[in-house]
Amino acid sequence: MADTSVSDQVSGAPVMLEARGLTKTYYSTDPPTRVVDGIDLIVRRAEFLVVMGASGSGKSTLLYSMSGMDRPTGGNVLLEGRDLTCLGDKEMSRVRLNRMGFVFQQAYFLENLNIRDNILLPALKAAPGDKGAAITRVDALLERFGIAHVGRHGITQVSGGQLQRASICRALACEPSVLFADEPTGALNSSMTTEVMDALTDVHEEGSTLVMVTHDPACAARADRVVYLRDGLLVDDRELGKWSRERAEGREDELLTWLRGLGF
Ligand SMILES: Nc1ncnc2c1ncn2[C@@H]1O[C@H](COP(=O)(O)OP(=O)(O)OP(=O)(O)O)[C@@H](O)[C@H]1O
Question: Which superkingdom does the taxonomy of this entry point to (predicted)?
Answer without folding.
Answer: Bacteria
